[in-house]
Amino acid sequence: MEEQKTHRKVRTGIVVSDKMEKTIVIRVDRMAKHSLYGKPVLRSKKFMAHDEKNDCRIGDKVLIGETRPLSARKCWEVLEIIERAPVLGVQFEEEDA
Q: Among residues 16, 60, 67, 73, which is most buried (max CB within 10 A)?
């Protein structure tokens, strides 16, 4: 039997929301040429993705892949966390020795 090759889409983006349970919102940016003037313009689109372990935070750079529909708007899943965002609000006290 022949093996079926799956050509599922893969995108890289930044997490903009992690407020939901097992779901994150990712903003994917791309450069497109303006239709009239030809100048490069930044275009962005938001995707909802499934995060099974709830370990993504706002600002993380993630790789998402297409999957079967999991809800009305969610048909992507987190494949890996490429880069972690720094944790804000955490201050370390310096010890005076």
A: 60
Closest by CA position to 62, among listed 17, 12, 25 = 12
pTM reported for the whole predicted model:
0.81
Contacts 24+ apart (CB under 8 A), 15-18: 15/56, 15/57, 15/58, 15/59, 15/60, 15/61, 15/62, 15/85, 16/46, 16/58, 17/58, 18/51, 18/54, 18/56, 18/57, 18/58
Q: What is the pLDDT of residues 21-78, one digit of tens each?
A: 999 999 999 999 999 999 999 999 999 999 999 999 999 999 999 999 999 999 999 9
